């Protein structure tokens, strides 16, 4: 038995035989043609491009109907790459002037495009490189007359093992008897991981050597809960994971029955439970959830895939639809956290200066350098609050100083006065809060809390900044540890500082759905949690099975622990005592 540790990309447990995806390296030798063959090769290339475009059109429609607009946009991105004149012109030039075959000209052009992305050490750009080669793989396939589809040949439920999976591969996994997959490379933010989550396929990525360690037919366990791949498990391990699978099925059945029940601990402590919401991926299942409101509306997508920033009216229409969707419930809208891995397509000079974009000009820093973006978004949000009586909250991302909060508060007040002079006034008070995700803001919160109406803790960034580890880098991902003593102590300091000024605190990062850390968060006194729709009922069920008094004792003990191992042991011992 061999156990590999990777990155948990999509939850769940899958057990079955291994199927190795053949190498997807479509390197082409430098094949030359005769001058008389140039015209034929150009026509061959144009035909392949049209066929590939037709395939992407078909795939886009299929994804739109099954997974929603967000994933259909991925196919749109691939179509834009395919239709880029630079791609077509470069291939045609190599065929005409260097007398290369269409395949060789295409491969060299793709190498040139991808090499630019290789120079940028950032997961977001490496994913864009994958998009280029995904399109290239389709083109080469069509240039060669269409290869036999490997996935279609899988004739029984299997677990796919690959060095890498392109999004176009992933989209077709479920209908080709693949019940889970693992890859050597990849991170939580990759398109492949996001698609796996939407398809409910357990997945582990960033395993480094899985495609070398696994043989076709090996029995595998993909543990998408803990980021583990078990190769040829022993009888005990196999039996244990089959038990876990049965428990997951029982839990899923139970969750369907608690939707209408209150979010309350066994001893009567109520907790607000919100959802992190994205209107592009809304579906019937999400709409059935009975939630306390919307804890995080990300707005960056409004700025993506567009040559110009969204207008005030564009934003207003989207916010209005969301507020109507959540009617009178609280709705927290985050100002666009642009930068880092969320780069707009329109030009902003600040991005060109960032050697380290995750710590550079992103979030509120970028908005203060581009005040027209801040002003437009504030106006759109406040205009919406003038139309519907929802409890609108505005969150400032990436705050590190009180001056940043004051700048936003000033702009916010100017928008209120301007609209009031035009006869418009919010039907309910609009609250202004901050995302506490930078350690400096957590430590100096007492100096800015007076400027804020509420606090939201963005633990995804807070943890990686506290521990100085990139959580999507497979080389150090194992060091991204919510159980680190600094995490509980920092969250406790934020909550205590806010509560002294009667300000409520919500946690909207991945830790909010972490069953291990949940009793600690409740015990520290957090007022609300916000989780993805997929995790909502699971978290509600966990809360309803906890005792707040026990959680409080556990949290106080955790604050005294000196290591992650001690905190994990403390939590595990407490869990065993409760059971």
Which features does this protein show?
579 residues; eight-stranded mixed sheet; eight-stranded parallel beta barrel; single chain; alpha/beta; 16 strands; 22 helices; globular; 13% strand
Protein topology:
Layout: E1 2-5, E2 7-10, E3 13-20, H1 38-66, H2 69-82, H3 85-97, H4 102-118, H5 123-143, E4 158-162, H6 167-171, E5 178-183, H7 191-198, E6 203-205, H8 210-213, E7 219-223, E8 228-231, H9 235-255, E9 272-277, H10 284-288, E10 294-297, H11 312-326, E11 330-334, H12 349-352, H13 364-369, H14 371-385, E12 391-396, H15 402-421, E13 431-436, H16 439-443, E14 454-457, H17 459-467, H18 485-500, E15 505-507, H19 518-523, E16 528-531, H20 533-544, H21 548-558, H22 564-578
Parallel strand pairs: 3-4, 4-5, 5-6, 9-10, 9-16, 10-11, 11-12, 12-13, 13-14, 14-15, 15-16
Antiparallel strand pairs: 1-8, 2-6, 3-7, 7-8
Give a short overview:
By secondary structure, this protein is of the alpha/beta class.
Description:
- The protein has 579 residues and is an alpha/beta fold.
- The chain is built from 22 helices and 16 strands.
- The chain has helices at 38-66, 69-82, 85-97, 102-118, 123-143, 167-171, 191-198, 210-213, 235-255, 284-288, 312-326, 349-352, 364-369, 371-385, 402-421, 439-443, 459-467, 485-500, 518-523, 533-544, 548-558, 564-578, and strands spanning 2-5, 7-10, 13-20, 158-162, 178-183, 203-205, 219-223, 228-231, 272-277, 294-297, 330-334, 391-396, 431-436, 454-457, 505-507, 528-531.
- An eight-stranded mixed sheet has the order 1-8-7-3-4-5-6-2.
- Helix 2 (69-82) packs across helix 5 (123-143), helix 3 crosses helix 4 (102-118) and helix 4 runs antiparallel to helix 5.
């Amino acid at each position: 038995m061999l156990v590999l540790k990777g990155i948990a990309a999509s939850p769940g447990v899958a057990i079955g035989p291994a199927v190795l995806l053949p190498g997807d390296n479509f390197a082409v030798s430098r094949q030359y043609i005769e001058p008389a063959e140039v015209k034929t090769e150009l026509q061959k290339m144009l035909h392949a491009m049209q066929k590939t475009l037709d395939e992407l059109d078909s795939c886009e429609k299929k994804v739109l109907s099954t997974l929603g607009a967000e994933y259909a946009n991925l196919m749109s991105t691939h179509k834009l790459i395919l239709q880029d004149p630079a791609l077509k012109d470069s291939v045609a030039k190599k065929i005409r002037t260097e007398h290369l075959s269409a395949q060789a000209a295409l491969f060299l052009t793709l190498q040139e495009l991808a090499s630019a992305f290789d120079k940028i050490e950032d997961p977001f750009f490496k994913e864009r490189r994958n998009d280029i080669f995904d399109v290239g793989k389709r083109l080469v396939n069509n240039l060669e007359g269409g290869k036999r589809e490997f996935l279609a040949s899988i004739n029984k439920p299997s677990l796919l093992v690959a060095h890498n999976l392109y999004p176009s591969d992933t989209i077709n996994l479920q209908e080709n008897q693949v019940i889970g997959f693992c890859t050597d490379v990849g991170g939580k933010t990759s398109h492949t991981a996001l698609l796996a989550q939407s398809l409910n396929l357990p997945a582990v990525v960033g395993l480094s050597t899985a495609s070398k360690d696994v043989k076709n037919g090996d029995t595998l366990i993909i543990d998408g809960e803990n980021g583990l791949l078990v190769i040829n498990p022993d009888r005990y391990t196999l039996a244990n994971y089959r038990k876990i699978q049965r428990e997951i099925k029982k839990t899923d059945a139970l969750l369907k029955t608690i939707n209408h029940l209150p979010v309350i601990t066994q001893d009567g402590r109520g907790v607000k439970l919100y959802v992190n919401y994205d209107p592009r991926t809304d579906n019937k299942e999400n709409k059935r959830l009975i939630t306390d409101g919307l804890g995080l509306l990300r707005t960056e997508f409004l700025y993506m895939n567009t040559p110009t920033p969204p207008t005030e009216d564009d934003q207003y229409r989207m916010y209005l639809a969301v507020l109507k969707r959540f009617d009178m419930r609280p709705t927290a809208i985050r100002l666009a956290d642009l930068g880092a891995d969320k780069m707009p397509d329109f030009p902003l000079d600040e991005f060109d200066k960032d050697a380290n974009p995750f710590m550079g000009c992103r979030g509120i820093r970028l908005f203060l350098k581009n005040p027209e973006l801040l002003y437009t978004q504030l106006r759109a949000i406040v205009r919406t609050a003038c139309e519907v009586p929802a409890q609108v909250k505005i969150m400032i991302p990436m705050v590190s100083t009180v001056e940043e909060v004051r700048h936003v508060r000033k702009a916010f007040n100017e928008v209120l006065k301007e609209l009031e002079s035009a006869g418009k006034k919010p039907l309910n008070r609009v609250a202004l809060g901050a995302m506490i995700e930078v350690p400096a803001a957590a430590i100096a919160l007492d100096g800015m809390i007076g400027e804020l109406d509420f606090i939201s803790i963005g633990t995804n960034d807070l943890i990686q900044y506290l521990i100085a580890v990139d959580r999507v880098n497979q080389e150090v991902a194992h060091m991204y540890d919510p159980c680190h003593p600094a995490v509980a102590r920092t969250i406790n300091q934020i909550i205590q500082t806010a509560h002294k000024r009667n300000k409520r605190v919500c946690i909207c990062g991945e830790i909010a759905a972490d069953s291990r850390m949940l009793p600690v968060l409740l015990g520290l006194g957090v007022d609300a949690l916000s989780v993805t729709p997929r995790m909502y009922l699971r978290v509600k069920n966990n809360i309803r099975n906890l005792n707040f008094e026990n959680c409080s004792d556990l949290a106080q003990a955790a604050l005294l622990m000196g290591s992650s191992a001690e905190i994990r042991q403390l939590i595990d011992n407490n869990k065993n005592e409760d059971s």
